Amino acid sequence: MDDHRRRRGSPPEAWTVRSAIPGRIRLRHPLLSRSQRAAEHVERVLFETDEVLHASLNPLTGSVLIRHDGRLGVDGLLERLNDGLAAALCGCRGSGLDRSAPRTLDRAGFQLTLSSCSVVLSVCAATSPFLAPASWAMAALAAGHVFYRAFAALFRERKIRVDVLDATVIGLALGYGKTFAGAFMVWAVDVGDVLLAGSMRVSRLRLSEIFGRDVRKARRLVDGAEIEGNVESLQPGDRIVVRSGEQIPVDGVVLWGEAVVDQHVLTGELVPVERATGEDVLAKTLLLAGKIAVEVRRTGGATRAVQIVRIIEGALEQKVRLQSAAEDFADRMVLPTLGLGGLGLALSGPGAMMAVINADFGTGVRIAAPAALLAALSRAARSGILVKNGSILESIHQVDAVIFDKTGTLTAEVPVVAAIVPCDSAFDEDRLLSYAACAEQRFSHPIARAIRRQALQAGVVPPPVDDSHYRVGMGIEVAIDGEQVLVGSRRFLERSGIATAGMAEHLAKLDAAGNSAVFVAVAGRLAGLLELRASPRPETRDLVRRLHEVHGIRDVHLLSGDQEAATRSLADLLGFRHYSAEVLPAEKAAWVRRLQDRGLKVAMVGDGINDAAALSQADYSISLRGAADVATDVADVIFMDGGLTHLELLFEISRDLRRRVERSIWLTAVPNSLCITGALAGVFGLGSSLVLNNVFNLLAIGSTMVPQGDTPLTPPPPPA
């Protein structure tokens, strides 16, 4: 066996090659059995190594089994693994994930090993009495951390927690000479700790699986040449080239080129999007076709992808309300359980007393609820739903009222050309549209995209441009066939000396309908205008109907700043029973409060920045701003694809989470209540209590740790 040591900055221990055959290698490092951080970094490095097909890490033995494609060099692999260990030891960022918490040793695996040895020794002592003293001492040593937690609860926190019950029953078992029972109880506690620690480690690995491998290399543009280098060396302002089939390694803006980008890992949208000059691209997304040059805006931990991971990791630290309520109930039951244990001692002896005290109500749900929350957050992330406040997942499906803001929420970002109105007999609709499309062909804002799309659908080919000038905030001046063409706002034309007074009545009707207009002037005279109308999201009408009919939510409201007629027309089109027009942004929070004053739980769906006050006031806040603004968005939930299609899936995930937590509570409460009743009646002893308590605790934990699948939506129960 060869030892491989890092040439510089080496951890004090070395990697050991335990076995190696073609396509398979087993390595060992002592740090893996002592540091959870080290294990996480090593697992992440292996996940990001293309040649690795599968890796299985055993923290108890400090070893890792690696299956690879045969191209893997041992020296190169060890170099990468040592980089991961060095990052773990110094508390640095690894693989884009910032670990700001201080480094702590993972003692759960060590404690489980110790308690397992204690159980084995106590079994041996049953047939070899001379081992009894060593067995008792081993059990007491293994129980040290349980006694410490009970001491900390009593004398530091000054609270009576379930840990006190655990320490009491273990102490009584050892005091009465029931060494195996005491050792087994310690082992059961340690199994729970390992399951909880393991589920949190797996959660971070699942996040890595969701967002894919990190790109290590990038081609930087320097004086027109492409120079390959490490992604870590890129700085804002650098320029890189990305080709078809490559992952975009940074957040940036397209300088030149066109591409089709798959960004479902961030947004959950299955349809690839087109990206061209001036448009943003995000790290972790895949370029399917084309070639683009990208100016770097954000790298490493500043990218949207890493911010999303941090938000999800923060959500994992929160407790669901049912878990907190169950733990509070379990803590409150400590003193009554001790009292019932005393009654059991008086009625049936020490065995009944220990059987009662062993039946605690908190262990199962304390581990099962975080595991259920992990499954829910993982499914949401896979579906493009970013949950910033994990606790709301438990009850958002019970919402009583939903408020939708109109602009950017119920309407698409890009408007539609509703009508083309010629104002001069020399211009027909096609000619007006061709001039407007010609002027807007170099721009990517929503109005330009709407005009170009209409020209494409109508089969209109824009004429060539002789010259072009953009007037900021006003419009565009172009030369077509030697004629001056102005395309833009009414103010732009009037400042250019072109009269529009004849269109005043028509414009008043447009304003009343909530529509807008783009004017076209040719050779100093008004040629006509293009009417633009907000385009409702195609999924909105069916969603509103299902909220009413399937989910039983009667209060579904539309808020709009438009005039009454336009708002009423949109409400009728989309199926809203309640709407309000001419609502200023500052008044939206007051609307939320009015519904809350009626005792309703209110969800607000809107703009995560401009609707900040209303979103903060709501019981549940949902934003459709997508992946670009996760850092500044104040909403609890963000739909990363910017659409409404995930709202019902969010309700389904919420219902599933609550079902899992409630099931774990029942699987914990019923058997333990049966244990207490049976012990007081003299039917159950300590052995029966140990079996019932721990078997059902493990069932409760296991029932919540199964990952949620992307199954079809199940209908909710009918409303009361």
Indicate the topology.
Layout: E1 3-4, E2 15-21, E3 24-28, H1 36-47, E4 52-58, E5 63-68, H2 74-90, H3 108-127, H4 132-142, H5 144-156, H6 162-175, H7 179-211, E6 217-222, E7 225-230, E8 239-243, E9 251-262, H8 264-267, E10 273-275, E11 280-281, E12 286-298, H9 304-316, H10 321-332, H11 334-348, H12 350-358, H13 363-382, E13 385-387, E14 401-405, H14 406-410, E15 416-422, H15 429-440, H16 446-458, E16 467-471, E17 475-480, E18 483-488, H17 490-495, H18 504-512, E19 516-522, E20 525-533, H19 540-549, E21 555-559, H20 564-574, E22 578-580, H21 588-597, E23 602-606, H22 612-617, E24 620-623, E25 637-639, H23 647-680, H24 686-705
Parallel strand pairs: 14-21, 14-23, 21-22, 23-24, 24-25
Antiparallel strand pairs: 1-2, 2-3, 3-5, 4-5, 6-7, 6-8, 8-12, 9-10, 9-11, 9-12, 13-25, 15-20, 16-17, 17-18, 18-19, 19-20
Helix pairs in contact: 1-2, 1-7, 3-4, 3-7, 4-7, 5-6, 6-7, 6-12, 7-9, 7-13, 7-24, 10-13, 11-12, 12-23, 12-24, 13-23, 13-24, 15-16, 23-24
